[in-house]
Design brief:
CATH topology: Four Helix Bundle (Hemerythrin (Met), subunit A)
Structural class: mainly alpha
Helix content: over 70%
Number of domains: 1
CATH class: Mainly Alpha
Order of helices and strands: HHHHHH
Strand content: under 5%
CATH architecture: Up-down Bundle
Number of helices: 6
Oligomer: single chain
CATH superfamily: Cytochrome c/b562
Length: 146
């Protein structure tokens, strides 16, 4: 099982690095890549919270670290003129300070959770509730419905 998980992790990392190389010059692609990483991290936490996957401290730490790291720089991926062909709502550019604050709140909450590290499934359930509330608040305001 560990070999399979290592192979999956390695493949995901390679795909992520390839996507990162493409996304570096394209802010829309870069922010979409970051959201996919955050979404995958929340999904991994959700699977543990629901009991679909066993509690794994390393997986929890990796997910929370990804959320923290990505959300600290996420607002930087929204330069003026990058509104085209994006699920980002124009409200981002109208309310950039609020958008940044919401992103930093999610990063801060992930950091707080990392510091106290959920120790079991119940702790991960609480973490998912905290993080999910942040995600929902931001998506309601700053993500276009498709």
């Amino acid at each position: 099982m560990k070999i399979r998980m290592t192979a999956i992790t390695t493949a995901a990392l390679c795909l992520g690095l390839a996507a990162a190389a493409v996304a570096q010059d394209n802010p829309v692609a870069k922010r979409e890549q970051m959201m996919k990483q955050v979404g995958a991290s929340v999904g991994a936490l959700g699977a543990i919270a629901k009991g679909e996957k066993p509690y794994d401290a390393d997986a929890v730490k990796a997910a929370l670290t990804t959320i923290s790291t990505d959300m600290k720089v996420f607002p930087d991926q929204f330069p003026a003129g990058s509104e085209v062909n994006s699920a980002a709502a124009p409200a981002i550019w109208d309310n950039m300070d609020d958008f940044k604050a919401k992103s930093m709140k999610l990063a801060s909450d992930a950091d707080t959770l990392l510091a106290s590290m959920p120790a079991d499934q119940a702790g991960v359930q609480q973490a998912v509730q905290t993080l999910g509330a942040n995600c929902g608040t931001c998506h309601q305001t700053y993500r276009l419905k498709r």
